[in-house]
Design goal:
The protein is an alpha/beta fold and about 300 residues long. The chain contains 11 helices and 8 strands. Helix 1 (about 1-20) crosses helix 3 (about 60-65), helix 1 crosses helix 11 (about 275-295) and helix 4 (about 70-75) packs across helix 11 (about 275-295).
């Protein structure tokens, strides 16, 4: 868990340090503050689970694959990237490790997860699919249609709402006519819980409990996990100067930091500080090596313009 956490955080710190060099030719939607959701849920998922995510997908890709090499290859647009340099940051995938697809279009991977769960049920199997999405996606009709179909067919699909309270720069209170996502999901008859997405042990515990319930009795489950988005919607900077939200105090920012909170919890449970520092150093070395190698990898050739094109 600590390694996955560190890979996600240090990779995005590397992006922030290198992005203005203009070698990474892709928009960046950084997930600083939300790493514990991807890490915690990924640790709770059973082997073979199929995951689908959003454009804010770096933590999810690294939590599932721990593959910094193809991650940075994709960001630099190189042939060694997870999508041969053609997908960019917003469309990372790693099917061999369970990450089937992520997409720049809000809400579009939710029905894909439902389809994957439907395929499992159709074949008489008990495999699980997981859909990660932001709270803005719950304002798309496809979310409610997917939830309804999953309930109707009793599909084992875990809906994970990564709720930062923002749709780009618009606060939840300015775009929601209902009281609570969890209450609304329960009104559909869906098992639904909420928790602190900045607390990795809590995320893991709630995901594991929900998956256990889904295994015993087929049907979907929903987790609304709140977290604080540290940076702007797209880009590498803070945006508190824009005025739509206030910057928390330094003490509050520390409380909202999932990486720092998890390290503090590990120390409280008796883990040695030297052990945590060694894990961080190992992750930092992996990130540095991957970034350096990827930046020197070849670009895809002209022939790649016509490969992997299905429509």
């Amino acid at each position: 868990a600590s390694r996955k956490h560190q890979l996600a955080r240090l990779s995005e710190e590397k992006i922030r340090a290198k992005y203005m060099g203009d070698e990474m030719k892709t928009p960046m939607h950084l997930g600083v503050g939300g790493e514990a959701i991807s890490v915690g849920v990924s640790l709770a998922l059973p082997p073979g689970a199929r995951c689908f995510g959003t454009y804010r997908n770096h933590s999810l890709f690294l939590a599932l694959s721990e593959d910094c090499r193809t991650f940075f290859g994709e960001l630099y647009g190189r042939a060694t990237g997870s999508g041969k340099g053609k997908a960019g940051s917003m469309h990372l995938s790693c099917p061999s490790q369970g990450l089937m697809a992520t997409s720049a279009v809000v809400g579009t991977t939710i029905p894909l997860a439902v389809g994957a769960a439907f395929a499992e049920a159709y074949r008489g199997k008990d495999g699980v699919a997981a859909a990660f999405f932001g709270d803005g996606a719950t304002e798309e009709g496809v979310f409610w249609e997917s939830l309804n179909f999953a309930l109707l067919k009793k599909l084992r699909v875990l809906f994970i709402c990564e709720d930062n309270g923002l749709a780009i720069n618009t606060l939840a209170k300015d775009r929601r006519g209902y009281r609570s996502l969890v209450a609304a999901a329960r009104a559909f008859g869906c098992r639904a819980e909420e928790g602190d997405g900045s607390d990795l042990p809590e995320v893991y515990s709630k995901a594991r409990a929900m998956l256990s319930r889904m295994k015993r009795v087929p049907g979907p489950g929903l987790l609304r996990l709140s977290y604080f988005r540290y940076l702007e919607h797209v880009g590498i900077n803070e945006d508190f100067q824009a005025g739509y939200r206030k910057k928390p105090s330094g003490r509050e920012l520390k409380r909202l930091d999932p990486v720092g909170r998890f390290e503090k919890a590990l120390l409280a449970r008796g883990r040695a500080r030297a052990e945590l520092e060694a894990a961080r150093a190992e992750a930092a070395e992996a990130v540095d090596k991957a970034d350096d190698a990827a930046s020197r990898d070849p670009f895809p050739g002209p022939e790649e313009l016509s490969t992997d094109v299905f429509a």
